Amino acid sequence: MELLQGTDDTVHPEVRAHINSLASALGGISSSEDGDYELGDDALEVLRDMKRWIRFYDDKTNRMDVARCIWEAKLMQGDLLPILAKWPGEQMDSAYKSRIVLACLELMVPLTWPLDWDKERMTANHHRHMPVLELAQVEYKRAIINFDGARILHTAVRAALPAMQVSVGDRSARDQAIIKLVLFLLRNLAMISPRRESKYQGDESQISRSAIIDAFSYQDIFDFLLMLASNMGDDFACEDMLVMEIMYHVVKRVDVQRLFMDEEQRRKAELGELGDIMRKESAMVNEQGGRRATRHNRFGTMVWVARGDGKMSTLSGQDALCSAATRYKKLDSAKSFKPPRRGKKEDKVTREMGQPTKLEPRATAQLRSFVHELLDSGFNPLFQQARRSIDREAPHVLQSHRRQFLSLVAWFLEAEQMRRRIARGRGQAREESGVSSFHLVAGVLTQEMFIMLNKALHEAFDNKDWHELAAVMRCFTQVMLTVQEMAESPNEQDEEIAENVLSRIFYEEATHDVIVNALKTYKDQGFDYLDAVTELLHHFVRILEAYSKQNVDMQIRSRRRARRSKAKAARDGQELADRDASEHDEAEAQRLAKDRKFDFHRFASRISAQPVVDGFVAFAKYYGDLNEAQLKRLHRYFYRLAFKQDMSVMLLRVDIIHLLYNMVKGPQSLDKSMPSFKEWEELVKHILRKCFQKIDQRPQILVEMLFSKLPKTAFFLEFGYEKQTVASNRALKPAAELEFKFTEERHRQIAIVVGAMLDRNESEHIDWLKHILTNAETERRSWAPPDATLDPEQDGSACPEAASEPPVIIAHADTAARRTAMFKNGYLRLLMTISGLQRLGPASDETPESPWVIAPDVSADYIKDSRHFIAQAEFSPPTFDEGVLAAHQLRRKPAPRKKPHQDDNGQDNNNNDDDDDDDDMADFLFPDGGPTTRKAIDDATKPKKPRRRHARSLHESDEEVDDQRAAKRRERELEKARRIKSALYVREGDDEFDQDEDDAFFARERAIADRARKAAESAPAALDATSSGHLKRKSDVLLTMSGSDDDDDDDDDDGDGDNDNDGSRNDNHEELSDHSGAQSETEYRRSHARPKRRKSSPEHHDSHMHGPNNDEASNQDADSDSRAPSSSAQPEAAARESESEPVAISKRSRIRGGFVLDSDDED
């Protein structure tokens, strides 16, 4: 419906005509003497038609024409309120009257609904009507709460009582709507207030906060709210947000301290405020004394000002004659450069919460009584139900409700603290029947509340919702102060609860980070946000310091980012390919949590950063408007920063020094009668004294005073030296070890590594290593013993010089880059290892300063060969197929798997592979020494092929399938391991031996040991007498002593190509494993009692006789799984045979029936 052409009416004439006709048909004042309001014949239908006009015209078309017409027709004051006053609650005895009252309420609620000043969605109609409708709502509020004919709000509540009498399970949708209708009306009236921009011409005392509190108390609305709050959750479930919102708009911006003052305290406070205002006024007058209007002001004034550089500046105006500070201020304001000014942001806090409210004495007493009763009876049920609704995101919860919930919790906790403080000052005991005052607010001190508080804190900070973040921080502050009072309570139960709560609050390091970062990110969020964040940080640091001193072993959960390994990323690449970028980033970088010991000094260093200092300096610029508590907060931070943390250099900036000086000595300084003025004066004096001392010590501070300071710069300026930092564990980790993919000869291995280093342009490392090897060869040859034939019969002790070993040769790094390469370059480390160098010390303790040495057992010829192979590879690098480089022949050496941590059920928590599960169960079931460890000789010569895993669909639940399979596999392996363990420990016939048989057994063992020792003493002479060209078979006794650990290592080290021997040993092992199952128990024991025969070179004999592990190897027992049964010849005969008959040709041994037979014995 559009306006007619040629008209300038704000509302369409047809709309106004319809509304006016409906208002006339509704009724009017009677012509009788009583002057009562008389309803029309169709009054109920008229009210319903008006509701339809509002719903289907204003709401659907987003216009406000109907509301404007209703205001102009004075429908609220002239019709609706007289109709509600016509039937008080006691006379509402018919359904018709109830319907009329509800129809009036259905019109009053949309007419008083809060207006949304959203500039993005406002149209021309909104700009035309909203200023008028805002003043209309103020008039509606004044008329409703000050109506003389009846208690309108009381009548509205009486209309909802029949619906509330029905139990919560039997209430219909209509009953719920009636209850909400009354609550919406109360919410709207509490929320309506004139904006600053709108100029209200009426009496503001009739629409003030004191007026609405007085109306709520007089019309029993406070009792109605108390009834709802105390029964919330039991009889009322969906009304929690509305009740909370009404309370929020009643108590917002009310000073809690003034609320709980008595008349005498209030009088003193008002007199103090008046004195402060008068002192400020007198100071202002004194400051402007030289500029007051006189008869000389009509004359012009121009002065010359001498600047420090010898130049002159011209100033005009008589204010330049007042003082030097005024002249310099005027000079600065006249500068040509002026920084750009941005438009002032709209303060959401001021728009929603308004200015601080001062209540009248009567309203103060009424509100204080309501707060007392709510804390005693309805606080816990209301806020517990509200928290549950917010947590489950109920349909009736709006975005602003969480902010209002947190603000209300903070306000009521502060009220409870004030009430407790007043009671403690009067000597009154709050505990009655075992219920302390802390139990009255226990509903907001639960674990669920802390979870919600942490969630809201992080979400508001991440979303940059500064208004909600300020509310969260105020709630967090009051919770901490309440818990601190609990910790100081004489009740042991309260003290224990407070200890538990503080440990939960301080446990998450992420909470520490958000609190500090909230102040670091301050820019222009407003004074309310700055006040909230500085208050929280002040109390958080103070309570955390006291708690950390009391709990020395305090642990916190630290979170760090860790990226997945490349193998896992490649394995999951197919699944991640179909996901979007955000999911991929979240999967790539995940947060890991780890407990660590809390260090308060480390946390305190974070609050000394420059952004935090700037935040407190910005707060200090409001020093003229701050109260005593806020000034004390600032004073404690500056004192801690300058003297407790020794970081006074952070305050040595020109603007900060100027601000501190103006606070105590400037033209607009703090009032000298303030209690904290002396403390501020002493603090500024000591800071300036430190400033002058620092300038004398380090004159470069004069330049740094112009700029903000980085942590390293501040530390240097404060202490005179750079901060010594320790490298992280990640930086101290050496390079990964490399290995060859294929088995190659040593010269071929050196050629591959040299070729890879040449491809990486690392020839300087090769030259350095050649130089080290050249010097090592020269030094090693100088220590070589003279060539002389030693007499076999001569004792080795006769030539001590010949028996001495050459010293260890240390490979010194010539540069720092070389030292780093020796630690972080895997190719250089591999080349050094192959060339004969080794690390000095265990690999786990290696640092960049750990030396590399050439051991004494490395001969000069070995070093010469290494240098020759390196030079040969440099001259002729190895070549491969097209596209294949030398680096492709190497791979990273796999690190040993760490055994997973088991839970109580024996299942690992890391979901590792099958090998981890097997190792885990082996450690669980078997102690040291059993079952038999698998030898390297048992491994296959070819690498095992990886098992193929069928690709599963992305839509399958792979985790559930894998968990089920892993559980079944663990059960099978565990059962098998239990059987193995049972067979290992429980054997038939173990308990059938008596004491005589045991004595005989140990006697035989001692005799065998004596014969073995005699054979070992006579073995060196026999070995030296043997010709170097022939091989001699070792005695069976010595073979028994040598142990089975050398079987798989000796032949590989000789390098003489005896691969046939390795193959024969593998064949023998396979035959043994095939026939061992068929042996009887007697043959099994007999075969284990026989010594083992093996072929060995003289070098092997020498290593067995003189090696460091000789004694240890001689005492090892033969295992049935890894050692073949030997010949039945006696050890002594075998020893004599080895001394008399040299073996020229190695004989091939075979196993038949559990016996080792040579090729000569087959006949």
Automatic annotation (TrEMBL):
Species of the source: Ophiocordyceps australis
InterPro entries xref list: Timeless, Timeless_N
Compositional bias annotation for Basic and acidic residues: 569-585, 963-977, 1062-1074, 1096-1105
GO cellular component: replication fork protection complex
UniProt feature, compositional bias: Basic residues: 558-568, 891-900, 943-952
Keyword Glycoprotein annotated: no
Family label: Belongs to the timeless family.
Primary subcellular site in the record, as a coarse category: nucleus
GO biological process entries: DNA repair; DNA replication checkpoint signaling; meiotic cell cycle; replication fork arrest
Record keywords, A-Z: Cell cycle, DNA replication inhibitor, Meiosis, Nucleus
Protein name according to UniProt: Topoisomerase 1-associated factor 1
